[in-house]
Every structure is written in C-alpha cells, then in structure tokens.
Design brief:
single chain; about 120 residues; 2 helices; alpha+beta
Length: about 120
C-alpha cells in the first residue's frame, strides 16, 4: 500500500484575486474551495484539487457502508508534517460529502445523482 506524504504549498495572493476565479481555473480537476468569505477575520481560503480518491455509491444501496473503510484506509496512509503553526490548516485531507450521503444505510430507492458528482471526494 502506498503511503502519502503531504507537503504544504502556501501562496499569498494579491487581495484583488477572488478565490472563485482560482476555483474556475481548476477546470475538471475536481476542485474544492473552503472560502473564508468576507468579514473579520477572513484570513485564509483553502483550494484543493486532484483528489486522491473519489468514492461512488450506487442508488440501489449496493456497497453502501464501504466508504467508511476506504476513508479509514486513506487516513491511515497519510502523514502530515506541520510546517507553519500560524496557518489553520497545514496539509492533510480535505473532503466533500454530498447531501445524499446523509441517508447512507437507509433502505431507500433514491434516483441516481443527476450531475455525476460523487457523494464523497
């Protein structure tokens, strides 16, 4: 099993650059933006792309619950080296959970996700 080592890449951007413009520039690289939005302190926005894994769940419920084991295995393979204590996040895993993951484990006949997005990335 491959071990992952995460190295922080920190870029200070001109304040005139909008995080959403960077997000749009990622195209089909499955980007994830944690935008600090406006107001105080609004100091950090995080942009991640090229996920290590994406887990697809069928609407029929086949294989449901397997995502937990897959996520645990990914977490066990990662090693994060804390580079800068001043940052709120210094490397590791960011993820996105789809709304329909909330009914995982229920015996519901749900329609297929219409936009082709994974429930967990």
């Amino acid at each position: 099993m491959t071990a992952y080592r995460f190295e922080l890449r920190r870029y200070e951007l001109d304040p005139s650059i909008e995080p959403h413009a960077l997000l749009a520039g990622c195209g089909a690289r499955a980007p994830l933006l944690l935008d600090s939005a406006g107001g105080d302190p609004a100091r950090f926005s995080l942009l991640a792309f090229d996920p290590l894994a994406s887990i697809e769940l069928s609407s029929e419920g086949a294989g449901r619950g397997a995502w937990r084991a897959t996520l645990a295995a990914l977490l066990a393979r990662g090693r994060v080296e804390r580079a800068d204590a001043a940052l709120p996040f210094a490397g590791g895993f960011l993820g996105a959970l789809g709304y329909d993951l909330g009914v995982e484990g229920e015996r519901l006949a749900l329609p297929r996700e219409p936009w082709g997005q994974p429930l967990l990335a």
